[in-house]
Amino acid sequence: MLTRRQFLTVAAAALGTGLAGCSNNRAGETDQPAGSAENAGSAVAGAAGSAADEGATAPAGGVLVAYFSATGNTAGVAAELADHLGADVFAITPAEPYTADDLDYNDSGSRTSIERAEDARPELAQVAPDAFEAYGTVFVGYPIWWGDAAWPVKTFVEGNDFSGKTVVPFCTSASSGIGGSGDELAGLAGTGTWIDGERFVAGASADEVASWADGLAL
């Protein structure tokens, strides 16, 4: 379990690594799982802390930010969101971490390409967050891969019961919008009250994330 300071430090490092990868890899790396094999964002789990930003409007009940991040971009947004709301954090972590070769969307034989073709559900190291029943609001974050929510997030939503919870999707993408990915995840979950989500670009500012969160009717 990490403190908020520890989580933000690791997430910031993950984001920095992911952004550095952007300068060396193909454009649109958040639209497809190309480029960096950095999975630090998906390896961080713990609490974001007990206090929200001054002036933040936190939803009633416990708040959880659950996210999967392959290159650090989604981890960065999750860190800003959790810090603003004083939310707990759960990293959706594949049981078998993705490598650089796995994330090469130009290779039809890469792991993610095969998983896409098979509509696979990658096994997770932990499907259900600890004390999941205590949370009234759950933010679910993910990168967009081929215009779709990254597959590990589908495993997560299908494996948890969101009954009685408000669920808010958010994604990162270089060019694609959130599209129908939130609606698809809501359908896969089959439970919970899902509201419209938001798409962020890599390196979204704290103000952008906070403004969006404060504008939600939660």
Topology:
Blueprint: H1 4-22, E1 46-47, E2 62-67, H2 73-85, E3 88-91, H3 111-118, E4 135-145, E5 148-149, H4 151-158, E6 166-172, H5 181-189, E7 193-194, E8 198-200, H6 206-214
Parallel strand pairs: 2-3, 2-4, 4-6, 6-7, 6-8
Antiparallel strand pairs: 1-3, 4-5
Helix pairs in contact: 1-2, 2-6, 4-5
- Please state the overall shape, judged from the principal axes of the Cα atoms: globular
What class would the helix/strand composition place it in?
Answer: alpha/beta
Low-confidence stretches: 1-10, 12-30, 34-51
Helical percentage: 25-40%
The main β sheet shows up as: 8 strands, mixed
Instruction: Report Rg.
Output: 16 Å
CATH topology name of the domain at 69-215:
Rossmann fold
- Count of runs of 4 or more consecutive helical residues: 6
Tell me the CATH architecture of the domain at 69-215.
Answer: 3-Layer(aba) Sandwich
Roughly what is the average pLDDT, rounded to an integer? 82
Query: Quick one: CATH class of the domain at 69-215?
Result: Alpha Beta
Q: What's the helix-strand series?
A: HEEHEHEEHEHEEH
Number of strands: 8
In angstroms, what separates the terminal alpha carbons? 27 Å
Protein name: Flavodoxin-like domain-containing protein
Domain Flavodoxin-like: 63-218
InterPro entries: Flavodoxin/NO_synth, Flavoprotein-like_sf, TAT_signal
GO molecular function, one term: FMN binding
